[in-house]
Amino acid sequence: MESNVKYKEKKYWNLRYAEEDCYEWFKDYSFFRMFIRRYVKSNDKILMLGCGNSKLSADMYADGFKNIVNVDYSEVCIQNMREKHIDCPGMMWMTMDIKDLKFDDAEFDVILEKGTLDALLVDEPDRWQLSEPAYKTMETILLQCGQLLKTGGKFLSITFEQPMFRKRIYARKCLNWSVNYHTIGDTGCIEYFVYYMTKGEELSQSDQDYEQAVSQRRQLWLNETNLPTTLVSSHQEENDFTKIMVDS
Ligand SMILES: C[S@@+](CC[C@H](N)C(=O)[O-])C[C@H]1O[C@@H](n2cnc3c(N)ncnc32)[C@H](O)[C@@H]1O
After folding, report:
1. Along the 248 residues of the chain, how does pLDDT read in single tens digits?
2. Where are the domains of the chain?
3. What is the distance in A from the centroid of ligand 1 to the CA of 79?
4. How far is the CA of 141 from the centre of ligand 1 (A)?
5. Of the candidates 164, 171, 168, 242, the residue with the CA atom closest to the CA atom of residue 201
6. Could you tell me the distance, in angstroms and rounded to a whole number, from the CA of residue 197 to the centre of ligand 1?
7. Among 50, 71, 168, 181, which one has the highest count of C-beta atoms within 10 angstroms of its own C-beta?
8. CATH level 3 topology of 4-247
9. Which atom number of ligand 1 is nearest to the Cα of residue 120?
10. Which of 14, 116, 118 should be mutated for ligand 1, with most atoms under 8 A from CB?
11. Which of 110, 173, 172 is nearest to 145 (CA)?
């Protein structure tokens, strides 16, 4: 498969993980540690979405976070990671699709993802208006995350997608959380964002206004195209994730 649509295919990840031992998307734990430590307590129960073969969970474990449940839909990945981390009691590895998370409500203090949601959005040509299937997929995943979090719990999302795009997905009243973020510059020109959502807190007034404006525009766009699943784009620029995926 030539294009980066492959990042949405489970078969691609299974084949890749059959060959590859370790790969870190974006940056490793040390780069984001300061923010993770700010929002996660050492005895928190943490759900890692789309863990891949990254060292993030193992590094966090070594740094004192012992209660981590890792999920990925690649059974090859989960099998490998389970064997590799057999000496980490408390760390769990489960094959699971993040669109269908099978946990109890309010089971987690923290849900963490790094680059996993980006992989699901990788073939979206217009980040100003997500296609209807992608929009619904994000909604499904995030509504579940909200349910799995305790009140006051945090959803941490590490990505290089800028707030003008990512807030369209995260800043929604139905998700029952507030949205904030940190920006971290790299030595190059890339900026990373650590979004942190707090379950049970209200969206700020400006985020509520933003949601309203975005949703009105989305409705107009849907009416105009009258083809919700057709991708009509006026902003066809390549996004950062596409560039990095292609470059790496
Ligand atoms: C870009 S990699 C990120 C891996 C890791 N989080 C990191 O920081 O290096 C995306 C990961 O998400 C997993 N993934 C993609 N879609 C998924 C889904 N629907 N359910 C569970 N895992 C998924 C892939 O198998 C892959 O391991």
Report:
1. 457 889 999 999 999 999 999 999 999 999 999 999 999 999 999 999 999 999 999 999 999 999 999 999 999 999 999 999 999 998 999 999 999 999 999 999 999 999 999 999 999 988 889 999 999 999 999 999 999 999 999 999 999 999 999 999 999 999 999 999 999 987 777 899 999 999 999 999 999 999 999 999 999 988 888 654 444 444 433 344 444 443 33
2. 4-247
3. 14
4. 13
5. 171
6. 20
7. 50
8. Rossmann fold (3.40.50)
9. 16
10. 116
11. 110
Residues with CB under 6 A from ligand 1: 13, 24-25, 50-52, 54, 56, 72-74, 77, 97-99, 114-116, 119-120
Length of the chain as a residue count: 248
DSSP string over the chain: --SGGGGG-HHHHHHHHHH-S---SS--HHHHHHHHHHH--TT--EEEES-TT-SHHHHHHHTT---EEEEES-HHHHHHHHHHTTT-TT-EEEE--TTS----TT-EEEEEEESHHHHHTTT-S-TTS--HHHHHHHHHHHHHHHHHEEEEEEEEEEES--HHHHHHHH--GGG-EEEEEEEEE-SSS-EEEEEEEEETPPPPHHHHHHHHHHHHHHHHHHHHH--TTS---S--PPPHHHHHHHH-
- How far does residue 92's CA lie from ligand 1's centre (Å)? 16
For residue 146, give both structure tokens: 């909200």
